[in-house]
Amino acid sequence: xxxxxxxxxxxxxxxxxxxxxxxxxxxxxxxxxxxxxxxxxxxxxxxxxxxxxxxxxxxxxxxxxxxxxxxxxxxxxxxxxxxxxxxxxxxxxxxxxxxxxxxxxxxxxxxxxxxxxxxxxxxxxxxxxxxxxxxxxxxxxxxxxxxxxxxxxxxxxxxxxxxxxxxxxxxxxxxx
Length: 176
Prior knowledge:
Layout: E1 9-10, E2 14-18, H1 24-30, H2 37-40, H3 47-58, E3 66-75, E4 80-90, E5 93-100, H4 109-121, E6 128-133, H5 138-146, E7 150-156, E8 159-165
Parallel strand pairs: 5-6
Antiparallel strand pairs: 1-2, 2-3, 3-4, 4-5, 6-8, 7-8
Helix pairs in contact: 1-3, 4-5
């Protein structure tokens, strides 16, 4: 089974919605604090640039062997977007990432979203989940841990590779 698109996912407090270009306006505010970019790099983007980036991302990877899956995180009780989660799939490996706007950090939102993403990936043709976390980003390391990933000795671009090996699906079951 080849995953071709993100699906809406609900958790106790969150709805993970497949990313759309229309999310750019609200997400520009979520991602606007320069301090948010300390570990993830870059800087806040104006709405127009974020719209253009979302248009590129939602059109899919130019490499047919790679699938880009992106979600925005909606906190239902506040009825607003609070961050994103993403997975890049290639050959049975999913590289995941998450970001939560500063006003919503420390509330378990990224952990809940990352756990939902890993849970969903378990139903797909994925055998390895990977995340790259800066060694000084303790909150992100805690999120990776809560999602079931463990640090490895592999480092790339100053970040530690975290990994989770998933059991192979049994043929004939959902996701196999």
